Amino acid sequence: MKKALIVTRVSGFVPQFEMNNVHILQEMGYEVHYAANYEMVVYGKDNKRLENTGIIQHQIDFERAPYPWYVKKAASQLKKLLCDIDFDLIHVHMPMSSVVLRSVAQKVRRKSGRIVPVLYTAHGLHFYTGAPLKNWIYYPIEKHYARYTDRLILINKEDYIRAEGHFKVRGKVEHTYGIGMDLSKFKDYEKNNWDDGGFNELKATYGIPENHLVITSVGELTKRKNNIVMIRAMRELLDLPITYLICGSGPLENELRAEVREYGLENRVKFTGYITNVKEVLMQSDCFVFPSLQEGLPVAVMEAMAVGLPVIATAIRGITDLIEHTKGGYLVESFEPEDYAVKVRRLFTDEYAHSEAHRDIRRRQMGEWNRKRIQRFSIEVVDKKMREIYAEVEKEFM
To answer: Which CATH fold topology does 183-377 show?
Structure first.
């Protein structure tokens, strides 16, 4: 049987984002193996979602920090895996694991003479327009390892244009519309089908006043997601009946809660912790906010679009692939809390919308625009593209 290897630095990535590709490979007759650090689980609490998937697991001691001894250990384990098992295709994700894997695969390739195609999906390159100078240290690294990449797959336009124009990839540069949204799961969660009963349930659960509108964000509570900006923006919106709902958990949760207490915003900012009913919460919200500092193509925003919510987000790479300013919401040109407050105020109180009914119609129009826009990012579209890529690679190398 043909064998395919998927590699990520941490566990949880494949069941969260890559099961579509796993199913495609299995349908093409591959036995799918997955190499990751199973002691580092993200996007969940354990590895149970891998049970009964047919995926064969391999422990690789990847670490986030690129210290030589960590890299050497992971590289040694990967080398043994590639020498012990004759894989027919390798698909790697995440920056650190991609560098280690491509380096090892190239050395094994030279020594054994066996050519195994290596695909790398970059879910948002570290360097991008407006990125801090320190991020650009990754540019020469990615440019170098592109020479050992048979398919470099980018999920947003900016990364694709940069790679196509500046990287000498061994094979080809490809562009996909993200990882593919299963929009059928959102059929019963469209905002236009929402009723008051569900909305009251959300408010009762999190202690939100009945007359308040709800703006929601979803994601891990990290510096990158930048929730602090929206928390501070709430200080400028105390005259409006609005509650900010933060869905997710992460290392900055205590710091964010302390910020809320410091400014006396406990009645205006609510934390849900990690939730599994994201679609239900989004359906019962009035707007989605996303002040993230860096993204590839954010699934959280795509889910909000699929539900039919207007979105307020920073005008950064990945976001601009999804949201069109004034049509699907508002793009913010800075990370200043005041600028976020202005956009929220405009969405809910714009003088050109002469009544709450008009404002509600406009929000629904933005949400409807987003629901139509997200169709191009559907699982059907992305699966078709990935099948073409895998089939082309198979034809070229087998």
So the answer is: Rossmann fold (3.40.50)
CA-derived radius of gyration, the chain: 22
Residue 75 token pair = 């590289």
Q: Model pTM?
A: 0.84
5's enclosing H/E stretch is strand 2-11
Inter-residue contact 54 to 26 (CB < 8 Å)? yes
Q: In this structure, what DSSP letter does residue 192 have? A: G
Q: CA-to-CA distance for 127 and 311, rounded, in angstroms?
A: 25
Task: Detail the DSSP E strand segments found in 199-279.
Answer: 213-218, 242-247, 269-273
Tens of pLDDT, residues 16-59: 999 999 999 999 999 999 999 999 998 778 999 999 999 999 99
300's enclosing H/E stretch is helix 299-307
Whether the CB-CB separation of 60 and 35 falls below 8 Å is answered with yes
| Class (C level, CATH) for 2-180+379-397 | alpha beta
Of 214, 190, 315, the residue nearest 268 (C-alpha): 214
Over range 137-141, report the average pLDDT: 95
Of 229, 263, 265, the closest CA to residue 337 belongs to 229
> What residue spans in the chain does CATH classification 3.40.50.2000 cover?
2-180+379-397, 183-377
Contact 114, 89 (CB under 8 A): no
CA atoms within 13 A on the CB side of 150: 21
